[in-house]
Amino acid sequence: MIPLSFMNGLVVAVLGLGRSGKSAAKALMASEAEVWAWDDNEDRRAEARAEGIPLVDLNNIDWREPVSLILSPGIPHERPQPHPIAAKAREAGCEIIGDIELLGRAMPDASFIGITGTNGKSTTTSLIGHILALSGREAQLGGNIGKPVLEFSPVEPGHYYVLEMSSYQLERTLSITFDVAVLLNVSPDHLDRHGDLDGYVAAKCNIFRRQSDPRSAIVGVDDEHSRRIHDHLKATGAQVVVPVSCLGRVAGGVGIEDGVLIDDMDGQAVPAIDLREVATLPGRHNWQNAAAAYAACRRIGVDAPVIAACLRSFPGLAHRQEHVAQIGGVAFVNDSKATNAEAAARALACYKPIYWIAGGRAKEGGLAGTEAYYGNVRHAFLIGEAAEDFAASLEDKLPATVCGDLETAVRKAAEHARADGEEGATVLLSPACASFDQFADFEERGDAFRRIVATLRDEIEPAAGTAGGSS
Predict the structure, then answer these.
(1) What CA–CA distances, in Å, run from 351 to 76, 182, 373, 374, 419?
(2) Annotation-wise, does 119 bind a ligand?
(3) Region for residue 312 given its phi and psi (left: phi exceeds 0; alpha: psi -120 to 50; beta: otherwise)
(4) Is 121 marked as binding a ligand?
(5) Residues near 312 by Cβ (< 8 Å), separated by ≥ 6?
(6) Strands 254-257 and 240-245: what pairing?
(7) Is 280 labeled as ligand-binding?
(8) Torsion angle (degrees, nearest 10) of CA 255, 333, 403, 192
(9) Is 122 annotated as a binding residue?
(10) d(CA 308, CA 263)
């Protein structure tokens, strides 16, 4: 646990008692702060009370008393409407921060690697952690993935905290200057929280705050918004800027050409690894993730051949194009983390023929951006709140069936795939939507997909064995 001695004896409010909120409350309590914790959800309050966290209704306090409000990332403090408690705190001049800011204040001399972007953050963060671990470097992973950051151990000089940073977390993290900051890509997302695309881009750019040479900015240049950010940083000249691309070689950076990672960071254009041979990193989007992880690890001194060897052994990540099963010649792939159209499009580019399960709570733009890959899709099976709207948008483009719930969709998709009997058939859960209409989060949705597929396998494979035995 991270010691927060600078909060000793002070009143600190905590709003939101999910994993990170409870972790923050416990770390503050261990450092003898006076914790006032609250959650709008009665079940979460009961869980916190059972774990010994003191509850105070933050709707009815004197906001001149707390020095800080530790706000969970998903709770808005500005747009689209500030949470009423956050509004009261701000009106009283109480600072609003997150648990990662507490980590930064507690560990000012630690080394930090931060990863952000609309898509690919978790895979890139995990890749960097995997490379550092196998290359003998001490690193702890967290932030928007893995364990809450205040459950980390304090680090010695030369050891790393590797943090996946959402735009929400970056807005509330002021004290950390990242030794290596990675921006993978930018496409419209969370616009209700940031007001517009400019607000979202500004939040992402906080990852480069106060960087100076020899600190590094690793920036994807395959989309217009990220390319502009790269060009601005390069022109400013404050830090070392390394471009990465999955669309070809890139001068002074790391690019991908015909699946081969080309390292031009030293101006030598050296082929480092053929990523087509790494089964756990399918598709150009994962090649971009690998290029960014490669560049980040090279900047902190990991040798290129070591990085290449580590990439080959990467085990992959749950809910990100995760191969769940092969049943009767049909592959089942869990890409529940694809919560927007751009992420779904990246998965649609990787398989053929696809029996596509999509839907949930739609993001702005719906399925826009997936159209280029409809030739890979045989049939769409639609679930959740977006099902009817998606069916209308797919009319005359793709055969589509409104299924409502995930189990119905999986069963219908499997039935169609087996009936068609095409080689390479893949039932792909890549929803292009948030999960909150039917599930707590994308993990719960992906876990449900896994369970349904496991049940389906138990039903189909014994039946296939019986049929074979009687012939």
Answers:
(1) 38, 28, 10, 11, 18
(2) yes
(3) alpha
(4) yes
(5) 273, 277, 278
(6) parallel
(7) no
(8) -40
(9) yes
(10) 11
Beta carbons within 8 Å of 455's beta carbon, 6+ residues apart = none
Secondary structure (DSSP) of 138-160: -EEEEESSSB-GGGSPP--TT-E
Rounded to whole angstroms, how far apart are CA atoms 210 and 254?
A: 24
Tell me if 118 is assigned to a ligand binding site: yes
| Burial 42-52, CB ≥16 within 10 A → b, else e | eebbeebeeee
Cα 42 off chain centre by: 28
The most distant pair of C-alpha atoms in the chain lies apart, rounded to whole Å, by: 80
pLDDT in tens, the chain (471 residues): 999 999 999 999 999 999 999 999 999 999 999 999 999 999 999 999 999 999 999 999 999 999 999 999 888 877 678 899 999 999 999 999 999 999 999 999 899 999 999 888 999 999 999 999 999 998 999 988 888 999 999 988 778 999 999 888 998 899 999 999 999 998 865 555 555 677 788 888 999 999 999 999 999 999 999 999 999 999 999 999 999 999 999 999 999 999 999 999 999 999 999 999 998 998 899 999 999 999 999 999 999 999 999 999 998 888 999 999 999 999 999 999 999 998 899 999 999 999 999 999 999 899 999 999 999 999 999 999 999 999 999 999 999 999 999 999 999 999 999 999 999 999 999 999 999 999 999 999 999 999 999 999 999 877 554 444 332
Q: Give residue limits of the domains in the chain.
A: 5-97, 101-312, 322-470
- Which residues, 6+ apart, have CB-to-CB distance to 151 below 8 Å? 1, 2, 23, 27, 142
CA nearest neighbour of 428 among 337, 326, 358, 359 = 358
Instruction: Locate 156 and state its tokens.
Output: 């010695």
Class of domain 322-470: alpha beta
With 0-12 CB in 10 A as exposed, 13-18 as middle and 19+ as buried, what is 136?
Answer: exposed
Rounded Cα–Cα distance for residues 349 and 373 (Å): 6
CA angle 219, 224, 228 (to 5 degrees): 60
Classify domain 101-312 at the CATH class level: alpha beta
CATH of domain 5-97: 3.40.50.720
**144 token code pair:** 């928007």
| Residue 360 marked ligand-binding | no
